[in-house]
Design goal:
With 301 residues, the protein is an alpha/beta fold. The chain has two domains: 3-219, Rossmann fold; 228-299, 2-Layer Sandwich (Alpha-Beta Plaits). It contains eleven helices and 14 strands. It has helices at residues 43-50, 72-76, 94-104, 113-123, 136-148, 166-181, 193-196, 216-221, 235-244, 267-276, 291-299; strands spanning 3-14, 17-28, 32-36, 58-63, 66-67, 79-82, 154-158, 185-190, 201-206, 209-214, 228-231, 248-254, 257-262, 283-286. It has a six-stranded mixed beta sheet, with helices on both faces. A four-stranded antiparallel beta sheet has the order 2-1-4-5. The two termini are 37 Å apart.
Length: 301
């Protein structure tokens, strides 16, 4: 399989803070690859290095065989980059922004219209509206159109669904799926664990390090403990007592429940312990593992 992105031992510091620590990664041609982790994990720093906007302190990276430091101008013409913060010209209209970005890359809106047609149709009723007056979801669509206007071979999307409504999130991922079907390589970062399962492969990141790289299902399958959920009337007290119990290995909040794993599975003993602590309305049952559970296990919350 052709390697489209190769990262080799990349390290980056911001003064005393190590944003990336010895990162190595390979992304294949036509792959929808996700960088998954919270704010501060290093996702945006890695994106900016790959997009030739930031120099690494150590290590190297290549885009389609081209060094990101030595030949940055060549790379910029072949990639589409959508930063996490809306960065288009807010005082230009939708159509003016698209025409401007097309002209920067020596192309036209008409030349590559087929590539953005599915997205641009949502924007057509607002093509005369200033970009700064668009909703969050429409700003997202416009930014994606501008990133695609020159028909790049690789698309970098840095937390593209942050701050948009659920419907726009769903539409956005449907668009990414269609772009992947056309053979485009896509690297997307997200703090949302439910989006991770939509990628071909993902890298789980924390504090500048890669904790695991694999398909979402493989990562879930590698969860090596039976996972349980528990609830009670006093959830705050329950969390505290669960974490103090010698029977419990790990416990954390997950929606309306706590998820936990046993040191050694002794369900009756755990129920007796919780009753002794005064807990009422105790409900315990096995539960399915998610990517978020895998991430929390790796970070040892």
């Amino acid at each position: 399989m052709d390697k489209m992105i190769v990262v080799e031992k990349i390290t980056k510091h911001y003064e005393q803070v190590e944003a990336l620590s010895n990162i190595s990664l390979t992304i294949n041609k036509g792959e929808l690859f996700g960088l998954v982790g919270p704010d501060g994990a290093g996702k945006s720093t890695l994106f900016r290095i790959l997009a030739t906007l930031l120099l690494p302190d150590k290590g190297k990276a290549w885009i389609n065989g081209v060094d990101v430091v030595k030949h940055y101008k060549k790379i910029r013409s072949s990639i589409g980059y959508m930063p996490g913060r809306f960065s288009l010209y807010q005082d230009l209209s939708v159509e003016e922004n698209l025409n401007f970005y097309a002209s920067v890359f020596g192309t036209t809106l008409e030349e590559n219209y087929a590539l953005i047609e599915d997205i641009y149709r949502y924007l057509l009723p607002f093509k005369e509206r200033k970009a700064g007056k668009l909703s969050g979801g429409m700003k997202q669509k416009l930014a994606l159109c501008c990133a695609l206007i020159h028909a790049p071979s690789i698309l970098f999307l840095d937390e593209p669904t942050t701050g948009v409504d659920p419907t726009s999130r769903q539409e956005f991922w449907e668009t990414l799926s269609k772009l992947k079907e056309k053979g485009m390589t896509i690297l997307v970062s997200t703090p949302y664990m439910d989006e991770a399962v939509l990628c071909d492969r993902i890298a789980l990141m924390q504090e500048g390090q890669l904790m695991k790289v694999d398909t979402p299902q493989q990562i879930i399958d590698q969860f090596d403990k039976a996972l349980w959920k528990v609830s009670a009337k006093n959830m705050y007290g329950l969390l505290k007592d669960m974490r103090l119990s010698p029977l419990v290995e790990q416990c954390y909040t997950f929606g309306q429940y706590l998820h936990f794993t046993f040191v050694q599975e002794e369900l009756d003993a755990l129920v007796a312990y919780l009753k002794q602590k005064g807990h009422q309305e105790i409900e315990i049952a096995p539960t399915a593992v998610t990517i978020e559970d895998c991430y929390l296990q790796l970070t040892d919350v």
